[in-house]
Write a structure and sequence with these properties.
Structural class: alpha/beta
Number of strands: 14
CATH superfamily of the largest domain: Type I PLP-dependent aspartate aminotransferase-like (Major domain)
Order of helices and strands: HHEHEHEHEHEHEEHHHEHEHEEHEHEE
CATH topology of the largest domain: Aspartate Aminotransferase, domain 2
CATH class of the largest domain: Alpha Beta
Helix content: 25-40%
CATH architecture of the largest domain: 3-Layer(aba) Sandwich
Bound molecules: pyridoxal-5'-phosphate
Strand order of the largest sheet: 1-7-6-5-4-2-3
């Protein structure tokens, strides 16, 4: 069977990886080498220096490209280095970017605090409203950056409509597919020009690496990205690539389990008397349920919720979980809980953040693949602690964590 006839799960295991011709080793070796001896005969040499390309990284690039129905991806040291290199490669002074109003905090910071210094202007619009997007794109933009399932609000934008509006306006459409992965959504098949991944999340899936990747069906865009990666030195290391190669093999199994667990936890939270709101794409109450079902094949592993009462209860809950880890990452086998206002999205001004639905009481749960009964039991005891405390018992210290967020302290 040719590779193009194979199914997603087979490709997740097998694409990009061939037994080592010398030893028969089934896993791609970690080519931990800086340089490759110049071959003066025969074909053009594929590898010369590991800042430009590396065989282990190339295996991951082939696998990720295949899964996004594209030529080999271009891999980067982190998700942010992928997005930064993309911006450097495709933008110049005077250009304009239109982005979803709810994007990952790091992307917001890059566009607002870094690229503005280079005379690149960014406007943030509600891409879930096609009329608003169309109006924003009346003024020319070079890039339209979308998160179709937004982090952390889980607002859904109509991918096909956004792609059409973006392309009609002459913008390159960039989709951050970190939350859903190609197992649940393949934006290039909907006409997007570029797909960005923080491989740190579900693609690695084990909290083991940071990494990034960009896929496209346009060879000239890929060529530009490789040139800028070589020039800025943003490639990933062979060990990062090797670990991610192993993680991706179980991607569809994990995404199915993440989705099942998240639905179960979301339904439980929805029935809890102390929970004010829950958002999860698989819930009957999820407003954009139909749209999400049309463009993603399952709900994914991310949900968010708000407790009734004082928003500071969110921080007590964060300190009270025992199985779930309060941490910045998402998309790994372990359940992680995040308080976006003081962690991942603390670089967004508070007023803007609240107007986007990232209130001080919002908690984001990256539901892992543990037994859902254990996740629920942990949340149950943590919610009980959070609601038992009086508001005056809860204070937030000004201490700054390594990740840049305010550390929560219950008195
Ligand atoms: N895109 C999204 C949606 C993210 O959630 C993140 C990180 O949380 C990034 C990009 C940046 O990725 P990294 O942390 O690998 O730089």
């Amino acid at each position: 069977m040719s590779q193009s006839n194979q199914h997603f799960q087979t490709l997740a295991v097998r694409a990009g990886v061939r037994p080592d011709p010398r030893t028969g080793a089934v896993l791609t070796p970690i080519y931990q080498a800086t340089t490759f001896v110049r071959n003066f005969e025969g074909d053009e040499q594929e590898f010369s220096y590991s800042r430009v390309g590396n065989p282990t990284v190339a295996a991951l690039e082939e696998k990720l490209g295949t899964l996004e129905s594209a030529p080999p991806a271009v891999c980067f040291s982190t998700g942010m280095s992928a997005i930064t290199t993309l911006c450097l490669a495709l933008l110049k002074a005077g250009d304009r970017v239109v982005a979803s109003d709810v994007v990952y905090g790091g992307t917001f910071r890059l566009l607002r605090q870094v690229l503005e210094n280079f005379d690149v202007r960014s406007d943030f619009v509600d891409t879930s409203d096609p009329g608003q997007l169309r109006r924003a794109l009346r003024e020319p933009a070079r890039l339209l950056i979308l998160e179709p399932l937004a982090n952390p609000t889980l607002k859904v934008s109509d991918l096909a409509a956004c792609v059409e509006i973006g392309r009609e306006a002459g913008a390159l459409v960039v989709v951050d597919n970190t939350f859903l992965t190609p197992a649940l959504q393949r934006p290039l098949e909907h006409g997007a020009d570029l797909v960005v991944h923080s491989t740190t999340k579900y693609l690695d899936g084990h909290n083991a690496t940071v990494g990034g990747a960009i896929c496209s069906r346009d060879e000239s865009l890929l060529e530009q990205l490789r040139l800028w990666r070589k020039s800025t030195g943003t490639i990933q290391t062979p060990f990062q690539a090797w670990l991610t190669l192993q993680g991706v093999k179980t991607l569809s199994l994990r995404m199915a389990q993440h989705s099942r667990n998240a639905l179960r936890v979301a339904r439980w939270l929805e029935g809890h008397p102390d929970v004010a709101a829950v958002r999860y794409p698989g819930l009957e109450s999820f407003v954009e349920r139909e749209l999400a079902a049309r463009q993603q094949s399952a709900g994914g592993g991310m949900l968010n919720f708000v407790l009734k009462g004082d928003p500071a209860r969110a921080q007590t809950l964060l300190r009270s979980v025992k199985l779930c880890y309060p941490a910045e990452n998402l998309g790994a086998v372990e359940t992680l809980i995040t308080h976006p206002a003081t962690m991942t999205h603390d670089s967004i001004p508070p007023e803007t953040r609240r107007s986007l639905g990232i209130g001080d009481g919002l908690l984001r749960l990256s539901v892992g693949i543990e037994d859902p009964q254990d996740i629920i039991a942990d949340l149950e005891q943590a919610i009980a602690v959070a609601v038992a405390k009086r508001p005056s018992d809860i204070a937030v210290s000004g201490a700054i964590t390594e990740a840049g967020g305010a550390r929560c302290v219950a008195k």
